[in-house]
Amino acid sequence: GQQVMQIPQYQHVQEGEDFTTYCNSSTTLSNIQWYKQRPGGHPVFLIQLVKSGEVKKQKRLTFQFGEAKKNSSLHITATQTTDVGTYFCAGPDRGSTLGRLYFGRGTQLTVWP
Amino acid sequence: DTGVSQNPRHKITKRGQNVTFRCDPISEHNRLYWYRQTLGQGPEFLTYFQNEAQLEKSRLLSDRFSAERPKGSFSTLEIQRTEQGDSAMYLCASSLATVRSGNTIYFGEGSWLTVV
């Protein structure tokens, strides 16, 4: 079945260091979405990538969608304590644009001041 | 507040009791989802509705679980004869699924269930 794998599961960085999380799918995705969940909170939508090779930026966050549309990454430059949380990628059901989303296990980011 | 609303936010129940959670989605959204999340895991899909029709149910959803969305607006998720393994956060989400906009889902704050 559809699987979305994320690595690493945990990442501890010092404030100011960069952070990257990787997402891989067993099948080609029509799109990929990224969510952030703060400790004790709920997942909050960050961004959606649709096109092969697409790169989008949100301030210090850079999102990439692979050329084959089977992998994606989120890179945070110069982390801050406000970046703490778990970052999830999610892709729709196989071959679907509007199907239910499958979530990865997430990468839990801890930032030391 | 026009976001997804869930209640109760926390529920502690004894094993064997029934519990019901309610979700009010974003009003203009046509889809409503239920996910379950346990510690250290991503949200796991349970079921979803398009308007009032329940279109898909996960194999994770045993016979003890039932979800309804009677008028295509709010939804309820009932768990009968709760077991300790049901302890989790139950997340409701909604989306306006269109070919143009895709299917970005917006989560509520979740309902935490503890079965003792």
Structural class of chain B: mainly beta
What is the C-alpha radius of gyration of chain B, as a whole number of Å?
Answer: 14 Å
What is the CA-CA span between the terminal residues of chain A?
41 Å
The largest pleated sheet of chain B is described as: 7 strands, mixed
Quaternary organization: heterodimer
The percent range for strand residues of chain B is over 45%
State the share of residues found in helices of chain B, binned by percent: under 10%
Give the structure's gist in a few sentences.
Chain A is mainly beta and 113 residues long. Helix content of chain A is 0%, strand content 53%. In chain B, strands 2, 4, 5, 6, 9, 10 and 11 form a seven-stranded mixed beta sheet that branches.
Salient structural properties:
heterodimer, A: 113 residues, mainly beta, B: 116 residues, 0% helix, globular
Describe the protein.
The complex is a heterodimer of chains A (113) and B (116). Chain A has 113 residues and is mainly beta. Chain A has strands at 4-7, 10-14, 19-25, 32-37, 44-49, 55-58, 61-65, 71-76, 85-92, 101-103, 107-112. In chain A, the strands form two sheets. In chain A, strands 2, 4, 5, 9, 10 and 11 form a six-stranded mixed sheet that branches. Chain A has a five-stranded antiparallel sheet with strand order 1-3-8-7-6, with no helix packed on it. In chain A, β9 (85-92) and β10 form a beta hairpin. Chain A starts with a strand and ends with a strand. With 116 residues, chain B is mainly beta. Chain B has no helices and eleven strands. In chain B, the strands form two sheets. In chain B, strands 2, 4, 5, 6, 9, 10 and 11 form a seven-stranded mixed sheet that branches. A four-stranded antiparallel sheet of chain B has the order 1-3-8-7, with no helix packed on it. The model of chain B has no long low-confidence stretch (mean pLDDT 92).
